[in-house]
Structure formats: C-alpha cells, structure tokens
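Re: weekly structure request thread

Next one in the queue (244 aa):
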Amino acid sequence: MTELLYRADAYRREATAVVLSAGPEGVVLDRTPFYAQAGGQPGDTGWLRWAGGEMAVANTVKGEGATLLHLPAPDATHSLPPSLPPVGASVTAVLDWARRHRLMRMHTSLHLLCSLIPGAGVTGGQIGLEKSRLDFDLPEPPTKEWLTEKLTALAAASHAVSERWITEAELDANPGLVRTLSVQPPRGAGQVRLVCIGDPAAPVDLQPCGGTHVRDTAEIGAITITKLENKGKQNRRVYLTLEG
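Done, posted below.
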C-alpha cells in the first residue's frame, strides 16, 4: 500500500520513502507526494533520489491494489535502461513542482467553470499545462467573453478551497453533488472526498473530487476562455487557459 501524502498536503514538494518494488514497469514506494493520473488530471513527474543514484519520473499511475507506480523516464541516450533504486532503499521523492502547481491552478479553474454553468452535466474533461477543457450536456453555453470575465473575477475574489469527507451513503442521498456523467467519484473505501470553493455554508462550488487543488483561488490568476466547440446535439466543449 502506498500512503498518498498529497491528500493531506497538496503543497508538499518532496518526501522520504522506502522502495517496496522496482522494475521497468515502475517503482512502488511506501509513501509518496506524487499524484497518480486519474479523472482527467495527468500524473506527476519529478525525481527519485537515493545514495548513489537518481531516477527521473516520467509519469505516475495507479498500480495493483492500493499502490502507485512511478514510471521511469528512458535513459537520455535511449540505449541504456533507466537507473532504478534498490528495493528497501530510502529515497527522496521530489515533485516537478512548477508543473504540479500549474495543474492545480488548472483543476481549480475547471471547478469554477462548473459553478458558472449550473445544472448541466459534465460529459468529459481534460486538464493540461497549456489548456484544459470541460464538456457539458448543454444546448448552448454562455459566450466566451462572459465566461472569461466571470471566471477571472471569481479567481480574483480569493475564495478559500477546502475539503471534507462524507460517507458513500451521504453522497447517494445527495446525487446532485456529482456533476460528472462519464466519470464517477472513487468508491470502495466507504467515504468520498468533497472539494469546496468558498464558504462551506454557501459554496461557490462543491463536488466530489480526488485531484489536487490550490488553497486559494487568487493563486490561479487570469483565466481566458479560448474556444467553444459543438461536439454533438447537446455536447458543448469549453476550453480555457491561464495567464502565466
């Protein structure tokens, strides 16, 4: 089992850990600050460092059971296998923090976008470094200009971003919390994580989410809606990007 340190602190940039297994398919640690690819959010990249060695992490994905796989980047020469840490070794797992933080800003921006299109189910989405998108079950979205103005204002309002856990039974009793139609919240542990933007008593947005987010919307900066696409009878795709 891999302890997911980002759940307690998404701003943790590195951590010491013990190698449980290592091979070409990936390295399993007993604990990690790396986020595993899921729900439209890319997996983290970075480095594993140990006495006498270093491995660049090209991606992080879910492994068997409750483990995470840190995938080794190919050797720079493409002729040698990547260096792997020995099983049982103590390593320092170091995030590519600039990349992670930008993905956090993007992810929180998509939650703000959801808040501006209430009642419409989310049929798909993807978080990227340069642009991100959400697809809505919607006849016609608002204009790019209106969404850009409202999103940037919401971010600048410095809304706190928090989380809390509810039981799966509580979620079942409140199905309206789930906005995504194609991807359901992770289940099986008996509880579900809710991400709240703004005052919990009157949230700007509240929905189940397992990803990483900024602490305050002011960290996001200016948000621009770059494109609206018609992807079907009632499927509207909305793209956004960030400044800086």
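The CA atoms of residues 75 and 82 lie 5 Å apart. The first strand starts at residue 3 and ends at 4.
Next request, please.
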